[in-house]
Amino acid sequence: MTEINSVKNEIKSSALELIGNTPLLALDRLHPGPGRILVKCEFMNPGGSIKCRSSLHMVEKARERGDLKPGGEVVEVTSGNQGCGLAVVCSILGHPLTVTMSKGNSIQRAIHMEALGAKCIRYPLVVGTYGNVTFADVEPALEGAMKMSEETGTFFIQQMANPDNIDAHYKTTGPEIWRQSGHRVDAFVTTVGTSGTFTGVSTYLKEQNPDIQCFVVEPEGSQPLIGCPITKPLHMLQGASYGVVPDLFKSDLMEDSISVTDEEAVHYKDLIGTKEGLFVGYTSGANVAAAVKLLNSGKVPKDAWIVTILCDTGLKYTPVPENLIK
């Protein structure tokens, strides 16, 4: 009977229990030292990205407050990952979901969301290209989500300004990193989209040890977080650095910004695959590139442990035929 009960305790009740508690992995093959790069394997979430965490937390908090009624409809603007996370959560909790997204974001994300029962409305590009989306390309999708919410009363998640986005990472991602690292973190680095991950994790880690340094990762030529003029609005980091400072960003948490070129992001994305056996996206490549740069910069001790994020799976980025983009 004890053995049967033990087996039962290993059974998850839904995909929601698969969200979070992702492994912290040392990239010792890619970077044998000095110093160490530790990565949070967020691509292992059921929606394929770190956005599953904030999706679950934002929906649960809206339900607790009564802002989202049982069976109530949900709408959100997304570059894809938040939509995929919400599709997981809404399918389990019984909320019809509509997502709005630029056609410049990879079609695999729309396919993923719709496979989970969501409706994905894709908006034509304004100035960007497929895989290179600017804030001008996001605005029509944002306006579409706002209009739907206003006209139909559908609950609008508003990840870009929702404090529950930060709270998700303050309560889960940050504490997991601190525990899994054995309380040894010298620096935390990550790309910034909504800033939920950076703000939530950095706040938690600095509360544990004020000496921990936190760095943002920005595409070279699109570094608004340190006040640089935007000279390259088109870059490969989908969902990151739209050339504006996010509402959720807290500059007092940031020591500095580390710039990464598209070429560096691709190079380290490929190295993560060939050296560590993991197929991840371009933001993950940028994060690891920035961690290597930081270890070589002299800004941290040579033996520092740097923690960063493998944000999502590379399966969301494979090239597609031109006719599917239009």
From TrEMBL:
CDD domains: CBS_like
SUPFAM superfamilies in UniProt: Tryptophan synthase beta subunit-like PLP-dependent enzymes
Segments forming domain Tryptophan synthase beta chain-like PALP: 17-312
Record-annotated membrane-spanning stretches: none
GO molecular function: transferase activity
Keywords, ordered alphabetically: Amino-acid biosynthesis, Cysteine biosynthesis, Pyridoxal phosphate, Transferase
Requisite cofactors: pyridoxal 5'-phosphate
Signal peptide: none
Example of a GO biological process term: cysteine biosynthetic process from serine
Top-rank taxon, per record: Eukaryota
PANTHER family per the UniProt record, alphabetical: CYSTATHIONINE BETA-SYNTHASE
Family in the record: Belongs to the cysteine synthase/cystathionine beta-synthase family.
Protein name per the record: Tryptophan synthase beta chain-like PALP domain-containing protein
Species name: Pieris macdunnoughi
